[in-house]
Structure prediction request, 57 residues.
Amino acid sequence: MKHLKKFWNDERGATAIEYGLIAALIAVAAITALQSLGGQLSTTFNKVSTTMSSGNV
Prediction:
């Protein structure tokens, strides 16, 4: 009975799961931000490439 109570009150696994969920949330936020930034960078590089190709430098 003593071991069962000790097991029931052990929160180390719950803490690890919470840290894992926080890390996953940060990863999702970073991926979303980088996808948006990637689209903007692509547009900027295409504009630069077009300008340089047309000789309007």
